[in-house]
């Protein structure tokens, strides 16, 4: 069977799944006709048992590989004990996870959430409360500044943080976003924009919140030294520096947290995605007592946040990150990825950008049929899972546990697609 939108044949079983999506899932959702049923390590299998190499990691969720046996065992253990213990009582797993994060990253406190957006939202609330109580910003005037083209999630507050928003979702949360109160637009990576915005409006700005590498915008790497300059400017203007590490954190960019690559220490760090190794929805915020002591868990905690299954899985996932030295592996495998792709001199690829195992292939402007969507479809057809990022980029982000053989096999398929595409 051939779909009108797909360049390749879809099996009857896959078609059934795709039809269910089209009929019953809001928006029809999945752009690629691949129905995955099983995953392990860096591999996935579809409903027809066709095997794929994962070059996407479900958008940085499975940094530790799919179904890592230690993370799975930890999740199952907590699940078999009962997964509903939470506020107003204590679960040992939550305390142990917070302690582990403190030992790894040095922040006084951790507060757990479920999705990345919820954690980014919590960071905004913490920063605003700090802005009123500590910085003494007049009531109602507190501004949270972001960078243009940022992505922090899909809730109404996190879409309000973004520069591009559908007006059909408005009105948006006021006094958040990439434009300062006096109208200065802050582009990502442009330190002079931030300087000007803080000089104009620093007194009203509680926090500057950025991704250390913009992920959903297409893996946009800022100039070297940017994070350091951001940290200095924020300090100078008494503005909190908030780093959203939901996509870049936990080994993905070749450091346990991406901002550590520049030796900076943000005031708040937002975590998500890989925190529970892909076994459970767990996110959260790290910060010191100067900010975190201002909030009450009942003000920002939600019912399923800090669920014992997620916390137990996260403790194991952090152990795997450290024990298997995944940040260094990301650098090693990333170097191999880049050197092999560069040597292949791929047609239509003008740049390979990223760090660790967080990369995008940036396409040149011609010919028009060489689109990221088409290349990703062809990759799926030949057994590699990747994803388009924007109109010009293809995201290459395998699990950090990927073997050299799997990586090279996936790269060979990728090179084949580019060579055959014209
Ligand atoms: N923040 C960043 C930097 C992200 O990349 C994402 C998701 O891609 C989010 C927040 C939102 O996370 P979630 O989809 O879990 O809500």
UniProtKB/TrEMBL annotation:
Cofactor(s) demanded: pyridoxal 5'-phosphate
Catalyzed reactions: a 2-oxocarboxylate + L-ornithine = L-glutamate 5-semialdehyde + an L-alpha-amino acid
InterPro entries the UniProt entry points to: Aminotrans_3, Aminotrans_3_PPA_site, Class-III_PLP-dep_AT, Orn_aminotrans, PyrdxlP-dep_Trfase, PyrdxlP-dep_Trfase_major, PyrdxlP-dep_Trfase_small
Single annotated GO MF: pyridoxal phosphate binding
Any Gene Ontology biological process: L-arginine catabolic process to L-glutamate
Keyword Protein biosynthesis in annotation: no
CC annotations in GO: cytoplasm
Keywords, ordered alphabetically: Aminotransferase, Pyridoxal phosphate, Transferase
EC number in record: 2.6.1.13
Pathway: Amino-acid biosynthesis; L-proline biosynthesis; L-glutamate 5-semialdehyde from L-ornithine: step 1/1
Superkingdom, natural source: Eukaryota
Family of the protein in this entry: Belongs to the class-III pyridoxal-phosphate-dependent aminotransferase family.
PANTHER family membership: AMINOTRANSFERASE CLASS III, ORNITHINE AMINOTRANSFERASE, MITOCHONDRIAL
NCBIfam families per record: Orn_aminotrans (TIGR01885)
Name recorded for this polypeptide: Ornithine aminotransferase
